[in-house]
Amino acid sequence: MVSRLERNPGHSTHQQGPELKDTIKITRQDDMMLALLSLLALRLALATGDLLQHGAPPTAAITSPVVMTECGLVKGSLEQGVNVFKGIPYAEPPVNQNRWKAPVPLSNSTGTCWSGTYDATTFGTQCTQPINYTDLTHPVGNEDCLYLNVWSPSLDGSDSLPVMVWIHGGDLVDGNGSMVAYSPNPEVARDLQFVFVSMNYRLGPLGFMTLDLLSKASETRTSGNYGFMDQIQVLKWVQSNIRNFGGDPNKVTLFGQSSGGTSIYALLASPLAAGLFHRAWPMSASAILNKTSLEASRDNQVFLTTTGCADIQCLLGLSVEKIFTDSPWTVYPSWAMADQGNIPVKGQFYGALAVVDGYVIPQSPMDAWKQGKAVDVPTVFSNVAEETDKYHLNITTWSEYRSEVTRQLASFGSEISNKLLQLYPESQYSSPKLQLSDLTSDLRVICPMDVVADVADRYFTSFTYRYIATQWPSQPVQGRGRYAFHGWDAIAFFGGIKDIVPNPSQSDLDFTANLRREISAFVKTGEPASRTWKPTKVSTALLGSTTTVTTFYHRDQCSFLLRNGFFSYAWIN
Ligand SMILES: *[C@@H]1O[C@H](CO)[C@@H](O)[C@H](O)[C@H]1NC(C)=O
Ligand SMILES: *[C@@H]1O[C@H](CO)[C@@H](O)[C@H](O)[C@H]1NC(C)=O
Ligand SMILES: *[C@@H]1O[C@H](CO)[C@@H](O)[C@H](O)[C@H]1NC(C)=O
Ligand SMILES: *[C@@H]1O[C@H](CO)[C@@H](O)[C@H](O)[C@H]1NC(C)=O
Ligand SMILES: *[C@@H]1O[C@H](CO)[C@@H](O)[C@H](O)[C@H]1NC(C)=O
Fold this sequence. Notes:
Blueprint: H1 3-7, H2 16-24, H3 29-48, H4 51-54, H5 58-61, E1 66-69, E2 72-75, E3 77-79, E4 82-89, E5 117-119, E6 129-132, E7 135-140, E8 147-152, E9 161-167, H6 186-192, E10 195-199, H7 204-208, H8 212-217, H9 226-241, E11 247-257, H10 259-267, E12 279-283, H11 293-299, H12 301-307, H13 312-317, H14 320-326, H15 365-370, E13 379-384, H16 398-408, H17 414-423, H18 432-459, E14 464-469, H19 488-493, H20 497-500, H21 506-525, E15 540-543, E16 547-550, H22 555-563
Parallel strand pairs: 2-5, 9-10, 9-11, 11-12, 12-13, 13-14, 14-15
Antiparallel strand pairs: 1-2, 3-4, 4-8, 6-7, 8-10, 15-16
Helix pairs in contact: 16-18, 18-22
The structure holds 2-acetamido-2-deoxy-beta-D-glucopyranose (5 copies).
């Protein structure tokens, strides 16, 4: 039995029979109307012989859709006409002896499936994460967190829909698969007629701890990247189960933002993920993923010192609180993302959580691609124009901008800072904040991602595409500003602008519509909708209310930065 069931014993029933009876006990009038209308539609469809194309089985018409999975029945709910299944367990809880191990799939033969019908109407607890970035050692969430969610506009398997699997961001340290404005939802599933899946995956020290001690105790003699293995387990679950939710297991698009994009970058080089997805859309990923297990394990030794652990049983017995207190959050090179969006200091790097472990990720993705070992699928590499805006809210004048750039880049020499001041001229910006944001966004994120996109373009046989989202929200967004900020494209795609901008304007709505138009074509065909938007080699799309195509975004700035070795200062995680 999985623990969710134990926590909600009242919600599980034992057969499909009682489940279906539930649907007859409809009391609210609108639900009754809905049921009647749906029945009517079904009858009409039957009468006109239309069922195979448009009909839905009775489960889609009732308030509690029930679907069979490999582990048994799950009962979801109907939201805005979409079948929603929340918190389906996809592996054994990664606790006790399962901590810091590959996820263990649920299986009837090991008695880890459920009996009766699983109540999939509440999201699973998010994975353990710091309460916030000023209090990294205070954990919230739960170690028992391997749950996924499904949104399906139609459960009719005869008309299999494309599937989009979402990987949330949060530095591989925080977040979950059901955040408002930043997750799949009934509206986007209905609008695009795709099946959406999202998941919680292990994060931070519980998801990415690399240590010799753990490697020695593992079958593969590797450690780390547990969070990536969780994501891969979800992709396997999709292969085995999504047909019953109306999805086509042969048309799976993986999309994610920030560290969700970085996860996709990793999976594009993982033999364990090969064949499990067919298109990829990493948004605002990190370009560097090359830390070796040896380096990571050495850097993480401090964790053994602080915990006093010398063997695996000690590690498995640690409380989550102790793990969070003793993790190398701020010990250089730290895991925390402190100021990676700022101008770098020469020689100062951050500790990566994702590592080249030799198993999940056998080599750094770009090296793997160069050797023909890519998970070679059509891919859209994307960024927003002001990736790093949130770090610069305190710059208010041009002279602050100039002194900040000069002071921060001093370690690289004045030739570099002078040239960069020239390459981002004040005349082109409406505010110094924006100017600094463009400089640091290019330096830390966009230009390094050009390198990644270029290598993919050269070594994948599949087409790859590149866009920069340049449109701004119609109004300043609280805590951000009025820029194309980190996460803006994902939020727009999900239809989440209304959740962060009080009254979205037509241009906000058009941005969502244009992004959905381009991406839904890509999901279906492997190519974006705009015919002028060609593969990376020859074009970069600037996405706003409409699509404008250019040959290269910020060519002079990127070529200067990359020529001068700034690739090494790309965002980590
Ligand atoms: C799991 O095993 C039980 C008992 O053998 C069986 O009744 C049930 O149908 C199985 N469930 C699935 C999903 O195969
Ligand atoms: C997911 O994250 C959001 C934002 O931090 C939070 O409000 C919500 O409670 C989380 N969901 C779960 C199921 O923990
Ligand atoms: C972080 O969480 C702590 C509670 O542990 C709270 O006191 C503090 O105000 C929070 N800080 C921020 C910036 O939200
Ligand atoms: C802005 O904040 C950063 C980080 O806290 C600090 O280093 C910098 O001096 C501040 N700049 C100004 C102009 O206040
Ligand atoms: C990882 O890549 C960075 C940037 O190219 C480089 O500076 C660093 O030496 C590389 N590390 C390893 C272990 O290859």
